[in-house]
Design brief:
InterPro entries: UDP_glucos_trans, UDP_glycos_trans_CS. Helix content is 38%, strand content 15%. The protein is of the alpha/beta class. The chain has two domains: 10-232, Glycogen Phosphorylase B (Rossmann fold); 249-413, Rossmann fold (3-Layer(aba) Sandwich). Helix 6 (141-151) packs parallel to helix 9 (214-228).
């Protein structure tokens, strides 16, 4: 890759087709474009809606190539995630290969394929077509290290339920601090297969990129260094947000090009007064947990902005607000189905961030210096929460009870720590 000049180099990028995975690769593509590379993102037609929600300034700097995977309007609700990914592997490998061939004939041959690590089959496509294959890890080095040790047979679970495990480069980890797909055997076993599968051919990748940065994970990065020498290229966020807390002028707008209502609402609140609550684009809280969060927000009496995403069709009962909550708190808070999260986090009115600690949200909170209250749900979130509270010390983890529910009193206690 070093032999190619930036002006002539064409880079192809393949995200896993979910918004939380599209955004970091899009931001990295935008960064490449700012250095003179031609960046083309290839994705299935069914993900067009997610691209419409993505950063418009980044989209303006890259090329988009969509292909049909036979499910342009989305998959049937009864089709398993494993079947969806199997279909994407079969159709996507052919579509990406055909695109490389077409671009080559057009005189725009890509020098490499940068692919989400959840799509290890893309490495075979790249090498078959004689270009470099670069894997892009969207989780922190800490979590990657745990999975690597797990698939290589090293112990990652404590010997006792209340014990801890020592993993080089990481703090002592209890059972509740480890990725849920390793500790919880119930549920779809494909999740663990998917997460561990991203490392099955990583030894053959030409480069390994991680959406993290050295000042955050220098020690654990050294533990990952052999044999891959991973390059930490994060945080993969819009450059305007990296650094000091920037004013929002002309940064975020809704589909009509106007600042969103929630930002106007924040403008009328005093500095550091607002509790911002969001649990990401995938998690669906149980009705009981929703009741407890709602109760804590009412009890604490402080202004709040709560993003309550409409549940997916197959998430029955998830994210349901308690009856009458919006009416009862209309003078205190604002509930919205979506908000421009980075613009909210840089706003002077926001005092703390109640979050599931997905990696994108964690990076956004860290880079903007907003104290976080972690209520992890699954996947890498428990590990991210541990790091936020005990290593990076920019937040606390709300303690769940024996039923795995964070009660309103506990959440209110955490909120008061930052008030």
């Amino acid at each position: 890759m070093e032999e190619e000049t930036a002006k002539s180099a064409h880079v192809l990028l393949l995200p896993y087709p979910l918004l939380g995975h599209i955004n970091p690769l899009l931001q990295f593509a935008d960064r490449l474009a700012s250095h003179g590379f031609r960046a083309t993102i290839v994705a299935p037609i069914r993900s067009r809606g997610d691209f419409r929600k993505a950063d418009p300034s980044a989209l303006a700097s890259v090329n988009l190539e969509f292909f049909s995977d036979g499910h342009d309007n989305g998959f049937p609700l009864d089709l398993s995630l494993k079947a969806q990914d199997s279909n994407f592997s079969r159709v996507g490998s052919r579509a990406v290969g055909d695109l490389i061939d077409r671009l080559t004939l057009e005189g725009a041959r890509p020098v490499c394929l940068i692919y989400n690590s959840f799509l290890p089959w893309a490495l075979d496509v790249a090498h078959h077509h004689g270009i470099l294959g670069v894997t892009f890890l969207t989780q922190p080095c800490a979590v990657c290290t745990i999975y690597i040790r797990y698939i290589r047979g090293f112990p990652v679970l404590p010997k006792e339920p209340d014990g801890c495990v020592a993993i080089p480069g990481l703090p002592l980890l209890g059972l509740r601090d480890l990725p849920s797909f390793i500790t919880q055997t119930e549920g779809d076993p494909y999740h663990l297969e998917l997460l561990s599968g991203q490392f099955k051919n990583i030894d053959q990748a030409d480069y390994v990129l991680v959406n993290s940065f050295d000042s955050l994970e220098a020690e654990v990065r050294r533990e990952m260094a052999e044999p891959w020498s991973p390059k930490l290229i994060g945080p993969a966020l819009p450059s305007v947000y990296i650094g000091s807390r920037n004013p929002r002028a002309s940064k975020t707008s809704d589909e009509q090009g106007k600042p969103t209502d929630c930002l106007h609402w924040l403008d009328d609140r005093s500095a550091g007064s607002v509790v911002y609550v969001s649990f990401g684009s995938l998690a669906a809280l149980s009705p009981e947990q929703m009741e407890e969060v709602a109760g804590a927000l009412r009890w604490c009496k402080w202004p709040f902005l709560w993003v309550v995403r409409l549940p997916f069709a197959n998430q029955k009962g998830g994210n349901a607000l308690p009856q009458g909550f919006i009416e009862a708190t209309s003078e205190q808070g604002l509930v919205v189905p979506w908000c421009p999260q980075l613009d909210v986090l840089v706003h002077r009115a926001v005092g703390c961030f109640v979050t599931h600690c997905g990696w994108n949200s964690t990076l956004e909170g860290l880079t903007q210096g907003v104290p976080m209250i972690a209520i992890p749900q699954w996947s890498d979130q428990p590990t991210n929460s541990k790091l936020v509270s005990d290593v990076w010390k920019l937040g606390v983890r709300a303690e769940a009870d024996e039923t795995e529910v964070v009660r309103r009193g506990e959440l209110e206690r955490c909120i008061r720590e930052f008030r």
